[in-house]
Design goal:
The chain has 3 helices and 7 strands. By secondary structure, the protein is an alpha/beta fold. The strands form 3 sheets. The protein has a 3-stranded mixed beta sheet with strand order 1-6-7, with no helix packed on it. The protein has a two-stranded antiparallel ribbon with strand order 2-3. A hairpin with a 5-residue loop joins strand 2 and strand 3.
């Protein structure tokens, strides 16, 4: 657990509640069922009710705009934000996560081992 807490602190998250790391699908489903976040269907699939807003808004993708990467980004519908705006949002996130139960997943973005990137998702 100490190693886990140290890794969470690297992300700037201090004083987390219970931290679950790299749980199996079965364990994640069990947690979701216990929390009342969905039900199992007759075929064993996990089902949730998403409400009327079921997708991501295409105008809600924000990218930190810095001179070093500005020309390398396909902006399209992406919205530029300043490093200062990002830092303010990140401070709010850090405060929000204090004392909260967290689920951490360490994995990869991309399938090809040559090009994939290691990622950590913290929910």
């Amino acid at each position: 657990m100490a190693d886990q807490e140290a890794r969470i602190k690297l992300a700037g998250i201090t004083n987390p509640g219970l931290v679950h790391r790299n749980l199996s699908v079965a364990s994640l489903v069990e947690h979701a069922l216990l929390r009342g976040e969905g039900i199992l269907t007759s075929t064993g699939a996990f089902r949730v009710a998403t409400g009327k807003y079921t997708g991501r808004s295409p105008h809600d993708k924000f990218v930190v705009d810095q001179a070093s990467v500005h020309g390398k980004i396909w902006w399209g519908n992406n919205v530029p934000i300043s490093p200062e705006q990002f830092n303010l949002l990140y401070l709010r996130l850090q405060a929000y996560l204090q004392g909260r139960e967290l689920f951490v997943f360490d994995g990869f973005a991309g399938a090809d081992p040559t090009y994939r990137l290691p990622i950590r998702v913290i929910n």
